[in-house]
Write a structure and sequence with these properties.
Helices cover 33% and strands 23% of the residues. The chain has a 9-stranded mixed beta sheet. A 4-stranded antiparallel beta sheet has the order 10-17-14-15.
């Protein structure tokens, strides 16, 4: 077993895969085709994504199979030694193992031995590449050596795993199975470019989305993705089956995914589609946060009871009072909503809009230090809107949000943390919240339509609400 310190893991972005992952999710998909490919892992670690193939090969044929069908590479000498020992334990003589298990920095240089002229069969690349986000790379002395990799043709990519994918594309690899962070499918700016560039050339045949922790030293959310190269470059909608694996393997959800190039092939595009098509003609303008600087510049004689979003004692936020002028007090009181961006894990604590008074029994929410997107955040409207209309907005917002979560399995949101909750906890971005609020058509409706709109929201009939919005746009 390879023993690597946390510092070394961060340095190389390595998280080693257990043999069980290969045997449970990968081997069943490839076992009928073992003699048709060269099985390659350019980031082999200890070889757990390729060498278990040998267990399915009769012992008398293993050495010949290994010679013709297996090549493994890694940048670390200790990983190469571990992989060679792994192969030896499966019956491969050491001198033969050393020829096909090779020290190589595959992010910098694609192995020359894998050129088509040297091989009898096409390459099938199965790998768990290094994950290191560019934002982390530039901040750490140990990882700054990777910065040069993100220049030239690789400019704009955001993670080492994305460079690995592009290397395969540029070297015309047809079949690939990658274990990669889930942000490949669900991320926005971090993944838009890699999806745009890669998925013009590759289909996704199948995907396992792992909704549990599978690596000992990181909580990175991952998926096992099966890629197949297209016959020609084509910017088209991709459709495939995705299987979500819960805490127990028996808990599986199968969904059909459609990825559109219009939305950078991002899963959960139904949210973007909705906010684009349903944006109100007269959208509400808003801002977030009541900061201590605004309080200090607006002192007066009216008492405002607030909670400090930067001071949480484990069960409650600290309550604090300020004497402010009447103008600021009215601003606070006339904006009674706050946004919860992170699911708590309970069904009555989902991301959404809430009443400050009902939740915290205060007038408002102050930020005394830095702003944090996961803390309670008060919303302030620049567009004139009454308190009653804001509470109608709250019900509208939560009804639409839950509808979109249901039809997409919350995939337009960011997975916050896997836990023992009855659902996977998610984070809803502030920019997403702003765009959803901008679909609230309160300024566009005539009185007769407004009454119908209110009744639908009160009835919590999301399908009727969607129909109403579509008809209103017509």
């Amino acid at each position: 077993m390879i023993k690597i310190s946390l510092k070394e893991r961060r340095k190389f972005g390595q998280h080693f895969t257990s043999p069980e992952i290969f045997e449970s999710y990968i081997l069943p998909e490839i076992k009928e085709h073992l003699n048709n490919y060269i099985w390659v892992d350019l980031f082999a670690g200890s070889g757990n994504l390729i060498l278990p193939i040998l267990k399915t090969i009769q012992k008398k044929h293993r050495i010949d199979f290994f010679k013709e069908h297996i090549y493994l590479f890694d940048v670390q000498e200790q990983c190469i030694e571990e992989t060679i020992n792994h192969a030896v334990s499966l019956g491969i003589p050491r001198d033969i193992a050393e020829k096909n298990i090779i020290l190589n920095d595959s992010l910098k240089s694609y192995p020359k031995i894998l050129s088509k002229s040297n091989l009898k069969f096409p390459i099938f690349h199965i790998t768990n590449p290094p994950y290191l986000y560019l934002g982390y790379i530039v901040k750490s002395k140990e990882t700054q050596k990777y910065i040069s990799l993100f220049q030239g043709d690789n400019k704009g990519y955001q993670d080492l795993y994305q460079l690995a994918l592009m290397n395969d594309l540029r070297n015309n690899v047809k079949d690939m199975i990658y274990i990669i962070p889930s942000n490949f499918l669900f991320g926005n700016s971090v993944s838009n470019k890699i999806r745009d560039d890669l998925l013009k050339y590759y289909r996704i045949k199948k995907m396992y989305i792992i909704e549990k922790k599978i690596f000992k030293h990181t909580g990175t959310n991952v998926m096992i993705t099966f890629f197949d190269r297209k016959e020609e470059m084509k910017n088209e909608i991709l459709e495939f089956k995705g299987v979500k694996i819960g805490v127990e393997k028996e808990i599986e959800k199968v969904r059909t995914y459609k990825l559109s190039p219009k939305y950078h092939f991002k899963a959960g595009f139904e949210f973007e589609d909705f906010i684009e098509k349903m944006k109100a003609k007269t959208p509400l303008k808003l801002s977030y946060y009541l900061k201590i600087t605004e309080i200090n510049s607006s002192l007066g004689s009216t008492n405002a009871n607030l909670i400090d979003s930067n001071d949480f004692n484990g069960s409650n936020y600290k309550k604090i009072s300020f004497s402010v002028n009447q103008k600021l007090f009215e601003k606070i009181k006339n904006n009674p909503l706050w946004i919860r961006t992170v699911d708590t894990g309970s069904w009555n604590g989902r991301a959404g809009l809430y009443s400050i008074k009902e939740t915290f029994d205060v007038d408002g929410i102050i930020v005394t230090k830095n702003t944090y997107r996961t803390n309670p955040i008060q919303i302030f409207f620049q567009t004139p809107i009454t308190v009653d209309e804001q509470f109608l907005l709250k019900d509208y917002f939560n009804l639409i949000l839950e509808y979109l979560r249901e039809i997409t399995d919350s995939e337009f949101m960011t997975t916050y943390k896997y836990s023992g909750a009855n659902y996977t906890r998610k984070y809803f971005g502030l920019s997403q919240a702003k765009k959803l609020i901008e679909t609230f058509p309160i300024r566009d409706l005539k009185e007769v339509h407004l009454e119908k709109f209110k009744k639908i929201i009160i009835s919590k009939d999301s399908k009727s609400l969607i129909s109403f919005l579509k008809n209103n746009k017509k």
